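Write out the 3D structure for:
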Amino acid sequence: MQDPKLQIQMLHDRVMVKIVDGMGERRSSAGIVIPATAEVAKRLIWGEVFGVGQHVRTVKVGDRVLFARDEQYEVEVQGSTYLVMRERELHAVASERPEHGTGLYL
């Protein structure tokens, strides 16, 4: 008998995020390739929100969020890796909702 597919619902103030920008090498604005192993400072990364708990107020599914990779819990669902964190661990959100932004765009 096959297991039924279960829908995941995040609880409380938890957010499930999938990393959208690769953790591999990147390029500087001058075109210089920076290897993935080079670390000058702790680097924040962008991810896409795939699930939110009922007490999350600032982000919604589909938003891109900025967070620190090292402080999160990892979970694998159907071969894809997601990160689970509290909403307060997010540093920024990039969305189409024009509110109190920085004037910078992705």
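The chain has a mean pLDDT of 79.
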